[in-house]
Amino acid sequence: MATERDTPTAAGERVIESFGRVSRTADRVFRALLLVATLLGIVALAILLVYVANDAIRPLTADPAWHLTFFLTLVVPTIAVGGYLYRFDAESFQFGTITVGMLAVSSMFAAGAAMIFVDIVAPVVWFAFVLAFGTAFAGIVTLSRFSHRIPFLARFLASGAFLVGSVLFVPDAVQSLPVYPSDWVMLTASLALPLAVVVGRYVAADTGWRGTVLAAGIGLGVVVLATNIGPLVGITPVPALVMTVMSVVPTGGYVAGRVRRHPELRPGLALAAAVLGGALVGAAAVDALGFAGPQAWVDWQFLTSAHNNTAAEAGLYPAIGGSILLMVTVAAISFPVGVGAAVYLEEYAPNNRLTRTIDVNISNLAGVPSVVYGLLGLGVFTRYLGQPRGTVLVGGATLALLILPIVIISAREALRGVPDEMRQASYGMGATRWQTVRNVVLPEAFPAILTGTILALGRAIGETAPLLMIGAPSVLYALPTDFSSKTGAMPLQVYAWASNYATPEFHNKAVPAGVVVLLVVLLSMNSIAIVLRNKYQRDH
Amino acid sequence: MSTDDLERDLTRRTENSPRELLIRSFFLLCAVLTVATTLGIILLLTTEAAKFFDSTAGLVGFEGTTTSAIDFLTGTKWRMHDGQFGVLPFVTGTLMITIGSAIIALPLGVATAIYLSEYASPRARSVLKPALEVLAGVPTVVYGFFAVVYITPALATFIPGIGTFNMLSASIVVGIMIIPMVASISEDAMSAVPDELRQAGYGMGATKFDVSTGIVIPAALSGIFSSFILALSRAIGETMAVTIAAGSRTQFLNPLDPRSYLESVQPMTAGMVELLKGDVTGGGLAYRSLFAIGLTLFVITLVMNIISDLIAQHYREEY
């Protein structure tokens, strides 16, 4: 624009032209510099990630024929199918990618859940508690169906009593039974059945209850089948069941539901088939031909054994279990409290001094260093409340306080995104404030709230300093068995290897492997959040 | 405001029913919990730190070994077994990490913000912004490991005599870690600059370079400054990366001398982690010194956050 020639004389024209050239060059140099600066941090991190992945997985130790086999069976078909779909059918391509991603991510989390049922929570305990909450829920629903005359407070107290009573008595009663069904039957009833119903409802929501029952039945059938086939290929029933329930059934349900409603997406399944089939065929071929795979440090042994003073034997199993229990605790505390605080500030709070204080306070809390939260946990929970040091409960509560400001801030943003017209429509129908919040505002804001919470949990899973402060042992040889036993965590274990065992052995083997596991968990959580956010933004 | 009044009118009849009151008080309780957290932090840090100093121990009714507050604030040596508790080595360590990471993160962060807000196409933004989020999302313990295992050896080929644990690699990773913070807050400030100002610039024949440096940056200056302060406060509070990368020697070095960065120095946060290895269960001197350093850290970061808020509020250009 600076070069518009509007000067009549030739000399003037030349002056302006050279000005223009100088400033255009400056502009171009500036732009290039900015781009370099923007990419510098990202590229640096990418290089570091490549290094650590190389150290942990060591792809170069594999037989070249192994790489070639997988290149031919997995990479080539995936690129061919994916490229074709990406070019001509972007919607199906997306559907295919989400299917593959969902299967991978859900398998990972299902493996974590299977670990809980194998080593931490006995299926009978789980079954007993599900039964207890089920009875309480049924009782409360019955109470609210048949008793509109009873005043609210009485009903509220009765419901509370019902809940407390059944949680106190039912689990003990169930566990004291002389005989109970085998583990997989109990898990089928308490885990597979509810999930199958939810998935079935998603698949056949538009066909009434008959379709739902059919879909849920199919899901349940798959679970029972997998549980009984598992032992034939060396997987015991409990992990086989949990893996199927939490990975195969949801993914299958997602695929079935999407394909039923949008048959035009069917080509996307070709991508999933190419990836899955390619991986299976490749694995079979490599096995049959005897090509050696990479001697990765992240292997089955690393994931399933405890710390060892020899780097090559060291594993992450207790730390993974600790991280899972910590996450459950953190989510159980920070989600209700964070969302509650956000609802108060956005929906209820009058514009007074208390509200402003809370407001300023939250933004300041978000900037408090994590070590200080650790001190808070150390001082308040262990010293003044007399809790033992380093337990799951203390660690989870400390981390929950740490991410609470983040959860609140993101939940408030989500609530602010709900249009006021929807609230007014609800009030106009005579709804009370709570009814509006429950039936209109929260369902509308839920995906965005979930996104924020997942991101905050990702922050908590990588935190080390507060756990060190509250005295969580950095090396743990056994899984924590309940909420009051000492816990480890993945980042703590990585820290211990990187500092206490700072030998080249550990730096080259155990630490990269631990870092890769930690990053895979984190990145998959972030990707869930990003997929949710994109979907949510598209819908609006 | 009027919609609030409308809502109030519509819910006035029901808002005091037991159910609504119960639910509202639950939500209020959740919100008040955050205030309780802050009060808990302040009370705990001050009472425990008070037990550490001669002059204040009496106020909280504490008897036992204490140290003088003057020695704590001006001492240049931290030797627990000699009874020397000078916080200055830790403060200089923290200062070094702040300066070092600022040199890396501030220019890169602002450049990133300008690129994202002025130059990048929507497509480039949709790739770059999640990538930057990943930069901030990698756990700090992983950054610490990167610094020791990959960055320090790489630096050693250029700089002989660099220690295994050194401030330079710690500063580099902390710098990388806080780039997204500078970038995202600065970019918000730059996006808030109204387009009319830019268009006026283009109308005068300015290039994007002229508009960015002459119009957008000056207009967004308060936001940029507040992003600097927030990011530096994050760098000050950063613990694990520094603990792993900068080693465990408490040294009192000149933070402005570049040679200091080749040595192992402990900032406050790393010092706290180191102290944990001592006796902290019984509430001994090590335990209380932990809180004294924690209080110092908390006050510094809190003051920085408040300053950043004030800058953002008071110097905000109203458009």
Topology:
The complex is a heterodimer of chains A (540) and B (319).
Chain A: H1 10-57, H2 64-88, H3 90-120, H4 123-146, H5 152-175, H6 183-203, H7 208-229, H8 237-261, H9 268-289, H10 300-304, H11 317-348, H12 353-365, H13 370-384, H14 392-416, H15 420-428, H16 433-461, H17 465-469, H18 490-499, H19 504-508, H20 510-539
Helix pairs in contact in A: 1-20, 2-3, 2-9, 3-8, 3-9, 4-5, 4-6, 6-7, 6-8, 7-8, 11-14, 11-16, 11-18, 13-14, 14-16, 15-16, 16-20, 18-20
Chain B: H1 2-11, H2 18-50, H3 54-57, H4 69-74, E1 78-79, E2 84-85, H5 88-119, H6 122-137, H7 140-158, H8 167-191, H9 195-203, H10 208-219, H11 221-237, H12 240-245, H13 268-276, H14 285-314
Antiparallel strand pairs in B: 1-2
Helix pairs in contact in B: 2-14, 5-8, 5-11, 6-8, 7-8, 8-11, 9-10, 11-14, 13-14
Verbal overview:
The complex is a heterodimer of chains A (540) and B (319). Chain A is mainly α and 540 residues long. Chain A has three domains: 10-57; 64-298, no CATH class; 312-539, MetI-like (MetI-like fold). In chain A, 78% of the residues lie in helices and 0% in strands. Mean pLDDT of chain A is 87; it is low at 1-7. Chain B has 319 residues and is an all-alpha fold. Chain B has a single domain, classed as MetI-like (MetI-like fold, Orthogonal Bundle), CATH 1.10.3720.10. Chain B has 14 helices and two strands, in the order ααααββαααααααααα. Chain B has a two-stranded antiparallel ribbon with strand order 1-2. In chain B, a hairpin with a 4-residue loop joins strand 1 and strand 2. Chain B is flat and about 70 Å long. Chains A and B meet through helix 1, helix 5, helix 11, helix 12 and helix 13 of A and helix 1, helix 2, helix 5, helix 6 and helix 7 of B.
